[in-house]
Amino acid sequence: MKTDTIKFRRRAFLMLLPITLAGCGFQLRRLDGVPFASMHLDAPADSAVSLRIRKALESSGHVRLVGMADQAEAVLKLGQENRSKTILSLSGAGRVTEYRLGYRLTYSVAGKEGRVWIDQDKIELTRDFTYSDSALLAKAAEEQLLYRNMEDDAAQQILRRLRSLKLSQPETERSLKLL
After folding, report:
1. Which residues sit opposite 99 in a β-bridge?
2. Is 77 exposed, middle or buried (0-12, 13-18, 19+ CB in 10 A)?
3. Is the pTM higher than 0.85?
């Protein structure tokens, strides 16, 4: 008898969970709203951000990635990715206790006939992390994780910027109207 009540409660909970998630407005992150039907991604071969953007655009199903720039409605051009690592603080003995990691990327979006949707823009991200010589391997893994996190963040920022574009006017025309 007791096991039947537990099974009933478990089933009721599993049935109510999707209803409560739908009722609160929860949705998985999607890439809707990119205003271009076809895009060309012009990026360095070793660019981690371009790989993340490519995967997001391909999985969306709304944007077709093409191999040639002249076949695309818009060209997303990514510049070189730059990583930096600077000492943030030292201990009394002169050993490093904190580092600041930096990540910088430039990008632009141009359309057909020389239209500029997003003029040369840059993304600069930093992360601070503590360092200890006694945990050398763990701190090296943490550093790589922070760089991957910054690459993900940069890719998401570019995708959000693409979603915010309106096809009616290129960005340079909009900025001229504001002046």
Report:
1. 87, 129
2. middle
3. no
